[in-house]
Specification:
Length: about 80
């Protein structure tokens, strides 16, 4: 769900656990992603799916800054690019 420009809420249902995540797509992150006019809603969905492939929804941060993940996981940006092209 879109909250504002580049700001989204994502609700994740996994088993009996439901979590809500606030995702902000910074201009710097979008520039690093280097995609021409990405569909931001689809991008948020792929970010969440990427994280859920690695950890349960309860371990995904409630306040999610994808730019911070770039430095923590070298596969993150290349995988997002692959998924969105």
């Amino acid at each position: 769900m879109t909250l504002a420009d580049h700001e989204y809420a994502a609700e994740v249902h996994e088993g009996t656990e439901t979590t809500t995540h606030h995702v902000v797509l910074s201009e710097a992150f979008l520039d690093d992603l280097a995609l021409v006019e990405p569909d931001e809603s689809a991008l948020v969905g792929e970010i969440i799916r990427y994280l859920l492939n690695r950890e349960p929804n309860t371990a995904v941060p409630r306040e999610l800054d994808p730019a911070a993940l770039v430095g923590q996981d070298p596969e993150f940006l290349p995988e997002l690019r692959r998924r969105l092209t």
